[in-house]
Amino acid sequence: MPYETIVLDREETYAVITLNRPPANAISETLMRELNAALSDVEADGAVRSVIITGGGDRIFCAGADLGNAFSGPDVATFIRFGNSVVRRIERFPKPVVAAINGHALGGGCEIAMGCHIRILKEGARMGQTESNLGITPGFGGSQRLPRLVGRGLALEYLILGTQIPAAECHRIGLVNRLSKEGETLADAKALCRELGKRPPIATRLIIEAVDDGLQAPIDQAIEIEIRAFVQSLKTDDASEGIQAFFAKRPADFKGR
Question: What is the pTM of this model?
Answer without folding.
Answer: 0.94
